[in-house]
Here is the input.
Amino acid sequence: MALNSSTLLKGYGYDLLLGSIAVFYVIAVPYTKVEESFNVQAMHDILFHRHHLDNYDHLEFPGVVPRTFLGAFLVSCLASPVILIMNLLHLPKLYGIIAVRLALGCIILFTLRFFRLQVRDKFGHQVEAFFIILTALQFHLLFYCTRPLPNILAFGVVNLAYAFWFNGKVHAALNCLIFATIVFRCDTLLLLCPLGLILLLSVLAKLSDEWFVISITDCAVMAGPYEINFDMGNTEILLLVCSLLHSTGLTVLVDSIMWRRLLWPEFEVLWFNSVLNRSSEWGTHPFHWYFTSALPRSLLAAFPLFMLGVLLDRRVLLFVLPVLSFVLLYSKLPHKELRFIISSVPVFNLSAAIAATRIYNNRKKPFWKLLYFMMLGLLLMSLGCTALTFMASYENYPSGHALKSLHQFGHLANHTKEQWVHIDTFSAMNGISRFCEYDFPWRYV
Here is the structure.
């Protein structure tokens, strides 16, 4: 038994650490905001209304732009056994939102684990350990990983792309980025372009090497190398085109049925946000905001360390450069939010972990000893900032807490008649979803 426990901790200890922090955030703050409303309501309707599409919330409240149902379907399928048990035990639906958020968190943390294992294989166990420490001390990544945002659904697929990239599986990485762009977040295109360029250059370099080997061994057949190179190039392009068509066909098929009109959701989002530039109606920030506000708040101690990591290890520049380009390209759009660039955090954490490892290993040397104590101070500051940010976030869902209190008072009053509750716009944007609703005597308008 002790051996099994030791093996479990060795293989999954890091995942249990990150998972326990994410679970704490879910239980402490189960409510959601307006940005999450579509996926939350979609998951509720899939789990409780099932095939009765006329009762689905999005038909009455479609939102500014349509979103895909594919992510909601996946998460709902994983959470459905828990919802079945809840229904048998007659538990409140509020437990349902915890179930779907935990299911989503499992998906995201699984993809993060896949990426972490590639980090360990490429950079070693110490870098992996510091990667986990930095991630655990940051608030936003683990808090957001359970929140049903389109950005987070895309984030999971981007993590897979990073892992395949590190593992040398170029086609799988590109396919993941294409799928994330077509289905979940069209703005992943800003990551696909620089990262795809580097991956395609890697493919060309590989094909060039193969052409050279073939040309040496088959020098008697002069047309052979060119012919093979041409065929392999066509194959690469054909696979990417098939991935694009498959992703587009899947989202158009499913979402046209659910929205009851011919629809490619992310194309409409791209048109609304980029072509019409309507996203700026929800606020704007200066060009430098991601670098002077969003990244320092999300990375904390990792922010100065990631810049040091690029200087200390030349290998990491290849990985940081396309992600940094992604943030720079996104900075051109006037409307900015931290969640838009959440997928850049793991790579920046990797660079920071490399710097932290180098500092730790040289901590006994005079100059590095100073850096070591500064790093410890940064880690302590990260812990304090995370605690303060969590306390602020806990108070950031007033409507959810208010409705919970109303239900408690109503239960004590023991009403026998229907009790009508009006959910205004502010309440719907700040904590209340269909999962917060109770059965008789409560009715909501």
